[in-house]
Structure prediction request, 143 residues.
Amino acid sequence: MNVDVFTLCDFAQNTPGNKMNIVGTFNRIFARQIPAVHPLCALAVLMRFEQIEQGTKNIRVSIIDSDGRPVVPTLEAQLNVQISPNESDASVPLAVVIQQISLPRYGEYSVDLAVDGRQEASIPLYVLQAPLPQQMPPASPQT
Prediction:
């Protein structure tokens, strides 16, 4: 089993033909205050399974803080992987929409993917303090 794509993005959608549209991949969120609430994002995953790995797969996605505590409920799903007899492997796209992620503090978080209880991929998510907007100097009087 290989994880070919695993990324947070603004939008992800599975399309006919076993394709996936991915828009706006990122790993940093800039926030002016904490908790940082990211209203909507998606997780795009493309997994490739070998012929011997057919069958039901238990998928678990978790987002945890630097202390290992979950910041959103763990997302769980089951996939039934079927591979044609004349194929050596199959790619399985998975697009998960995540709404209203509340990140309680600045720092590093981890987005983790487990398949059948085994961690297969992990990506960082950084929450950084947004810089203050620069003040414009006062306009000079017109003479």
